[in-house]
Structure prediction request, 441 residues.
Amino acid sequence: MFNIDVDNTTTSNEYTWTNDTSKEYTWKNYTSKLMTAQEEFWQYNVLQMSSGIHDIGDLNWRLALCLFGAWLLICVCLSKGVKSVGKVVYVTATLPYILLTIVLVKGLTLDGAIDGVIVYLKPDFSKLLKLQVWMEASIQVFYSLGATWGPLFTMASFNKFKNNCLRDSIILSFIGEGTSVYAGLIIFTVLGFMSARFSLPLDKIVKSGPGLGFIIYPEALGQLPGQNIWSALFFVMLLIVGLDSQFGYVEVVIVACTDNFHWLRSRRVKFVIVVCFANFLCGVIMTTEGGIYIFQVIDWYIAAFCPAVFGIIECIVFGWIYGLDRFSRDAKLMLGRGIPVFFRICICFITPSILLAVLVYSITAYQPPTYGSYKYPDAAVGFGIFVSVFPLIPIIVCAFIVVHNMPGETYKQKITTAFRPSSKWKPAIKGIQSDYYENRT
Prediction:
């Protein structure tokens, strides 16, 4: 593998011309769009992009094979349950930090890297007066932590009853956001190097979208001695991080189904194979020549609004419907202490208010999806909006079914009954159930 020449930077020009006539670069009276060799390789060799979402094109068998390989790895790791995942995560959760540190140390030796770090770390306090900055920061923290997503709940359900989940939550917050800051530092060393190399402002170097890691980093790594080794390390890290993230989301589906249909537990391996293969089939369309356009739409909309709605619903349920006093007693039974006053205030007031502000901001600041200069047709935008609200449909349907099946002559009585904790709600450990009933009101 290391004998393969990955230096796709040795073209006749560091930038190539596309057949576009966008006014991004003007030299004498000639107007065209600049594209690096890496970007050209990514779009036309790796993705084999078509002209738009209307042109799905042929299947890119290399991408399809990579997709199948990724799902095969996930299937193997999840087949034996959370214990096998835990062993794999020991590697997948720690190795990226080692690789990131290696890349950072090497990146700091590059020309212009320190300038990139200075731009990254130098504070601009005037930005604190802008509401948009706070909203963007809230969205970033909210989504990077995955606070209302299933993986955290699913993995936490495997903890021991007395596990200090409050401590774990605080540690997770610091590690998660610390990792984001650390990764940003590495990115800006590379951007600073590229800014110095091409004599361009830093904001002209930054690119967004799914191709960021396949364009910016290969360009920088291609300039290093032993570029094959650095490129291999970087893409191994990308693979590990992607697999590590995917484990939790797939496990959500598996655990939800096996908890509701117990007969699946004895057939877990077969069920995992079915789930992974079904996900592979769903992703095949994104390995076509027009697949990147479909991917961009789904990525643009899938987490646009629903996570904030989920968070608001959860705060209302735990803080007001189930009741914070009851919730605090449950926490005391597990942790030996109730929920601190600060967290009570956050659950009932601060968090739902911030999430509501994030939701309103997301709606008012909505922009239709784009991919570079490509603008999506109305049909694609409509599909994206459907994708954004689709996760809410099961909640609404299940809530209606539960309320409908509740005892009561009127729907008001049914709703009141549905808002009360079920008599079956209790700790699974029989030795703790007596303590639970003593404190229950």
